[in-house]
């Protein structure tokens, strides 16, 4: 897969992931999680938590947000084949 495309994929996912807590509230640290998913035929499939935020409700929201991302069309060799990714998200 094309490295530029992979960066675009990460950006498209990170752009839809947001914490429902007010961003100006500095009393709680920003949550971090790692998510595994398969990208196939332009769709994010089978999202799963690899590293939890520590909050089950926030983890469920995160999976929903990841699945709702509109990823860019893949480029590069083997672009038409399914690929598995693990992404760290903040």
Offer a quick outline of the entry:
The protein has helices at residues 3-16, 56-68; strands at residues 33-40, 43-51, 83-89. The protein is of the alpha+beta class.
Describe this structure in words.
With 90 residues, the protein is an alpha+beta fold. Helices cover 30% and strands 27% of the residues. The protein is built from two helices and three strands; from the N terminus they run αββαβ. It has helices at residues 3-16, 56-68; strands spanning 33-40, 43-51, 83-89. Strands 2-1-3 form a three-stranded antiparallel beta sheet, covered by helices on one side. Strand 1 (33-40) and strand 2 form a beta hairpin. The two termini are 24 Å apart.
How large is the count of helical segments? 2
What's the story with the biggest beta sheet? 3 strands, antiparallel
Physical arrangement of strands within the biggest beta sheet: 2-1-3
Into which percent range does the helicity of residues fall? 25-40%
Span between termini = 24 Å
Radius of gyration: 14 Å
Q: Count of DSSP E strands? A: 3
């Amino acid at each position: 897969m094309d490295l530029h495309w992979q960066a675009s994929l990460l950006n498209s996912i990170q752009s839809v992931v947001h914490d429902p807590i007010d961003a100006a509230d500095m009393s709680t640290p920003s949550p971090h999680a790692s998510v595994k998913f398969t990208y196939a035929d332009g769709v994010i499939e089978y999202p799963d938590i690899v590293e939890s935020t520590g909050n089950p409700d926030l983890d469920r929201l995160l999976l929903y947000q990841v699945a709702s991302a509109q990823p860019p069309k893949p480029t590069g060799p083997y672009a038409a084949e399914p690929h598995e990714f693990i992404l760290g998200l903040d």
